[in-house]
Amino acid sequence: MPLQPGPVSPKHIAFNQPQPIILPKSQEDEQKEQAEITFRKTLNGHYRHGKSGYERVGALFLTWEEDDMQCKATEVDALRALLAEGFQYETDYYEIPSSRWETGLFSKVAEFLHKYDDPQCLAIIYYGGHGYSGKDTGHFKWAA
Fold first, then answer.
1. Of 16, 120, 127, 132, which is least surrounded by CB within 10 A?
2. Alpha-carbon distance 45 to 122, whole Å?
3. 114 near 125, Cβ under 8 Å?
């Protein structure tokens, strides 16, 4: 007995549809994706349903007054908004002055750390600017 063709369904003719072209991810996209995964894993256990495992979380963002890299406009403003609006973290911004920067910076950082100096608090400091490894000590150094 010969086989009779059955009804044709969309499932059977899908091979005639154009298939989407999937381009490989760029290295930058891969790095962003991995950073997001790591960030989310880090927050697991500390941030669920809009509540963190900390009583208070604060982030201090630092850039130079003479910001030749445009860090504030290209990265700091967006990250600050994400932490403030997306995670309800307290955020603060300090523009490191070109003159008397040591006392201004140390004072601001000390004030910020004092505010979050408790095991139930998390203090995040984000620096946007140049840096290098010091030749004398090998320690990381910030630069304008």
1. 16
2. 14
3. no
